[in-house]
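Morning F.,

Quick status update on the modeling queue. The single chain you submitted on Monday has been processed. Sequence for confirmation:
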Amino acid sequence: MFRKSSTKANTSSIPPVINAPRIPCDLNLSSDRHMTSVDTAIAVSGLTHRYGTRTALAGLELSICRGEIFAILGPNGGGKTTFFRLLSTLIPLQAGSISILGVDAGRESRRAQALIGVVFQAPSLDKKLTVSENLRHQGPLYGLSGARLQSAHDRLLDRLGLTDRAADLVETLSGGLRRRVELAKGLLHQPPVLILDEPSTGLDPGARSDLWKYLHEIREQDGVTVVLTTHLLEEAEKADRIAILDEGQLVALDTPDALRATVGGETITIETDHPDTIVSQIQARHGLTASVIDGAVRLEVPSAHTWIARIVESLPVGHIRALTLRKPTLEDVFIAKTGHRFWTDTEGRRHD
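Structure tokens below.
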């Protein structure tokens, strides 16, 4: 269905989900193991995938609630793109399982495909066609035609603010408007699950804000479960829950607030030419644990602002180039879980 093929998904047995109620899920839980099957939209168990000798995903286990916006966050090479490809049935499972609303995506891929809408990072629109023509060409892939296709076409153009752009060629649209058309294509068959790969890539701040407004609308009004991959920390913050991947491993999973709370305090970062000396002196004089990350000294401590003067006064003059204080961020969570920064000097050589 997502390749260039004339084969269409069988959607006759899949009921539409428009105006479906959102099934509650306790997002305050620090673990997703307590969810019942009625709460679960997607269940992933033992998911492992390799490219030759390299492991892209290693025994991934997670559950995604119905009606939640769930972000897969990770740097390049973390495994998020491989997860997207497996979840969207673009590549076959090697080991483990994915269940989408009770349908085994490995054994019943056609049924699973009918349950999901997919928005790719790379453009999938025909730029030489109009907005309306792109949607009408997508319809038959999902078994939509005639009045059903017209109804879905009109509904989505209205929902996404594209009605007055229906006759415009896609090549004349801005990046934000093109992304809306991509979203309309993914939602055309009224799927209960929408999967997006790096949806904000290439969008300006205003277009990103609009995109998230629409994602929240389809979640709240239609009960759609939204799963997206991203390497943008600020984008992941907008999700209900975040799964953080690094080198194929799930290193953290919880709500943004709960993840930040695991860091344990505000973060002090000291830029210096003598990081090892400063780490040892902070430990010896104040009993605080500090570490060196990418040449800078970092320490997390409650009420960190009360420590700044004492730390500065206890260190040799001229050893501190700069000192910053900030509240915990998702990058601090990533560093605490992995021991390295979210972005590294090897990013250009790492792949998902």
